[in-house]
Amino acid sequence: xxxxxxxxxxxxxxxxxxxxxxxxxxxxxxxxxxxxxxxxxxxxxxxxxxxxxxxxxxxxxxxxxxxxxxxxxxxxxxxxxxxxxxxxxxxxxxxxxxxxxxxxxxxxxxxx
Amino acid sequence: xxxxxxxxxxxxxxxxxxxxxxxxxxxxxxxxxxxxxxxxxxxxxxxxxxxxxxxxxxxxxxxxxxxxxxxxxxxxxxxxxxxxxxxxxxxxxxxxxxxxxxxxxxxxxxxxxxxxxxxx
Lengths: 112, 120
Description:
A: mainly beta; 7-stranded mixed β-sheet; 4-stranded antiparallel β-sheet; B: about 120 residues
């Protein structure tokens, strides 16, 4: 199985500052079709997860442009610029290049 | 508006069975692959199973293969998860989620989840 390693486990950020979350996969997520099947989700307290980024760097409809995804191969990053109170929650990366599909263990974002 | 609403969760004894349902609305259900994702209490997310738009193909994580069956009724716009031989480690909130395109298996919409507790 592809292991998705997220760092840090938790992150405390002041409002208005930038947050950065790393996700590393144990195998390359570049598919033979040329796509990189890596997505990011935010699970706010008491809610189901919501899609932020798909195909490593594409922002989902309605997602603030303060969220950006980058990376390739095995190393990926989610950046949140100008952190706002509604950004708090747990962030997960997810790969669907290889079966079984696997999530990272999550990064908890707290607001200072 | 896309809506996914799970039902069927509750308390069940180890070794028994339970069937979850997910009622879909706001989109053409039979055009989309669908999935179940679970989350044990205070833990992270785990993909459970995926089914193709027409039900012809199914995929499972190893820990549920042979015990869980994902299925769908496109006429009723409903997704199912039949869970047999339940174990305490299956205790989790189960989310129904939509894959946006065939084989593009990220999740663009999620239901609110239904809680399954396996305990004697």
